[in-house]
Design a protein that fits this description.
CATH class of the largest domain: Alpha Beta
Radius of gyration: 19 Å
Distance between the termini: 27 Å
CATH architecture of the largest domain: 3-Layer(aba) Sandwich
Number of helices: 8
InterPro entries: Acyl_CoA_acyltransferase, GNAT_acetyltra_YdfB-like, GNAT_dom
Number of domains: 2
Helix content: 25-40%
Strand content: 25-35%
GO molecular function, one term: acyltransferase activity, transferring groups other than amino-acyl groups
Protein name: N-acetyltransferase domain-containing protein
Order of helices and strands: EHHEEEHEHEEHHEEEHEHE
């Protein structure tokens, strides 16, 4: 039976999500940050005969994130999606999201490798950090300038405002290195919650590559987050990128699918 969740179910929901806390980073973060009583977010749970959770669906504006251990009531949750705000994206663990594919006429599909870092697999403790700086809002413009100079980065109009929001709300952090008075490399987290964080924005200015700067920013950032008792995760889409993160200790835990109509 699928029901609309209220905060009375919060502990049970979090226990259910915690078994794969990296994979459920976005759902956990959205619930912690926005709760069960907003007009832009809803959570539904599929409850079994004994009240046990068998599946979850979270809506954040037009983005829907389903999760279950194995099988999910794709037909039941799909009816909720069809009755709600227009679907912009359906995303989550590949094995779960794929169960919705026969129901919707998706025109766009993207799959990414999903990797996790835990304290026990971290390999790069104690790196030099005296030239690595924790970014504040005052550093945002310099970070945006560096990102804009890197052709691999997609430039979004909302990038500056989004970064300011992330730093202000402490749902993410950015570490950077400067060389010759300008931003040389950085790494960041996003979607931070009490259990986990996602690595994003790892980059090096073209003039300072092959010096290991971004790798060191990433490793120091990871060490600090791990020391807070959290795990880290990230997406990557090619083995070359993955090999860099695996040297730090990231391990593949699955695939992440993103579908849109």
């Amino acid at each position: 039976m699928i029901v609309k969740a209220e905060d009375t179910l919060n502990e049970q929901i979090m226990d259910y999500l915690d078994e794969e806390k990296a994979m459920n980073l976005f759902i956990i973060g959205d619930i912690e940050n926005f709760g069960y009583d907003t007009d832009f977010q809803d959570i539904w749970v599929d409850l079994g005969e004994k009240g046990e959770i068998q599946g979850i669906l979270l809506r954040y504006f037009g983005n829907y994130l389903p999760y279950a251990k194995e099988e999910i009531d794709a037909a039941g949750f799909s009816e909720i999606i069809k009755d709600g705000p227009p679907l912009d994206m359906l995303s989550g663990k590949k094995e779960i999201v794929d169960q919705f594919q026969p129901i919707f006429l998706f025109t766009s599909k993207k799959e990414l490798y999903f990797a996790e870092l835990e304290e026990g697999t971290f390999t790069m403790k104690g790196l030099k950090r005296d030239d690595i700086t924790y970014a504040t809002v005052d550093d945002v413009d310099d970070i945006i300038v560096m990102h804009s100079s890197i052709k691999e980065f997609q430039r979004r109009e909302s990038a500056r405002e989004s970064l300011i929001q992330t730093l202000t709300t402490q749902t993410g952090r950015t570490y950077f290195i400067k060389k010759d008075g300008r931003m040389a490399a950085s790494a960041a987290t996003t979607a931070e919650n009490s259990r986990s964080a996602m690595i994003v924005g790892v980059c090096t200015h073209v003039d300072y590559r092959q010096q290991g700067l971004a790798s060191r920013c990433t490793a120091v950032l990871c060490e600090d987050v791990l020391n807070e008792g959290k795990t880290l995760c990230l997406f990557y889409n090619n083995p070359r990128a993955g090999s860099i993160y695996k040297r730090i200790g990231f391990k593949d835990i699955g695939m992440w699918s993103m579908y849109s109509e």
